[in-house]
Fold:
Amino acid sequence: MAVKKRKTYELEVIDLAFGGKGIAKPDGFPVFIDRCVPGDLAFVKITRKKKSWAEGKLIKILTPSPLREEGRCRYCRFCGGCKWQQLPYERQLEYKKNHVAESLAHIGRLKDIRVTDVIPTDPVYEYRNKMEFSCSSQRWLMPDELADETIKKDLGIGLHVPGTFDKVIDIRQCEIMPAQGNLILEDIRTFVKASGLPAYHLRSHEGFWRFIMMRHSVAHDQWMVNIVTRDKNIDVVSRLGAELAERYPNIRSIMNNITDAKSGVSTGKEEFLIHGEDHIIEKLEAFQFKVSANSFFQTNTRACEKLYAKVREYAGLTGSETVLDLYSGTGTIPVWLSGEARQVYGIEIVHSAVVDARENVRLNGIDNCEFFEGDIKDVFRDVPEKPDVVIIDPPRVGMHKDVVGQVLAHSPERIVYVSCNPATLARDLEMLATRYAVLEVTPVDMFPHTYHIESVALLVRK
Ligand SMILES: C[S@@+](CC[C@H](N)C(=O)[O-])C[C@H]1O[C@@H](n2cnc3c(N)ncnc32)[C@H](O)[C@@H]1O
Structure:
């Protein structure tokens, strides 16, 4: 059957692709369909057709897959957040493991690599320690609201319909954020509505309220609320801050970031402290970390401990080694490994992250971690010692190929590669595999109900 654009077909979903979409293969021709699970028989409209694949929009599930589960979240069929809620968690883990193994085999052409079962996370809801909700003056109406003429397209504070910048679903209950966050968000919504100030209009770029960013510390059950506005009006934000602080004593930090940038970035050009301190403290094992509004911190605290435990195991330190952590962020991995190494160096490009890293080292009373600021390919040469172990935790795009060359030139005994993208993991491991044996890859689930998967790989010099 040759599928045609704009035509509708009855298709059976047979697998899940990396990226989370279901795959049907009428006469062997792959059609990718969002929000389906294997075993679904679905009515699908072809929206995009290329030579070797097509994309379809799910019109209706004709026969649901026996695998299907009811998602806990009432927005999960529309919101971009966690689209895999219909799939049992054990199945999610199986698909994630397959995606890592298939990427290594097909993209990296790495045969017979041992990929372990995925290390699961617990709990699988209420796990995110950071959420960022957009404010919109014209929220996107849910299909059941469209029929009701009394419902207006008014204020929305929530998450986007995937692939859109201007369709914000008014999220009254987000299941992946700790429950108290929803109560705080509801109070913010009530205040914003009554404030007389308009929410941001995502097309005209006018309006006051832009984002509500919330961070939670698992260790201390503390919250940070970062209110991002287009203009400065400390008076009104302070009134909101005072209400929240009175109602929720565990809100330890309320910040106001101000930005008129048209891009949807919540980092302010100016930042003001409204209540409490300008940070919250989170813990990983016994280590403490200062988390500010705009600093990077892994978004699933408990899963992060499991990820770093695997890094520690693969690093195999005995106390005498020099470790180099590339892409060191706010220094969490150097701090984590500091007790087992003689010396740890980190390289990180973002100035504020390096400042936070040095602060985190100080906070934990550590004296064997040092950080270099800059692009790794330029700064690598400043590291004063040859590392025995190199940890690599790059962003989604993976490593710059010059950096791969620099790592190979330094020839450390072990490399531990941490990746949030199986495709670039496979590409980079293929380059490193010229001189290193890839002994094992362990996927670690940080993001239940999404297709995202973190992996840790152990490479040893041949
Ligand atoms: C995935 S994060 C890893 C952070 C840290 N390892 C952690 O677990 O929190 C990647 C980091 O690489 C940094 N980065 C990206 N490109 C870089 C480059 N060319 N040179 C140095 N650091 C870079 C980013 O700023 C970010 O902090």
Q: What stands out?
A: The chain has a mean pLDDT of 94.
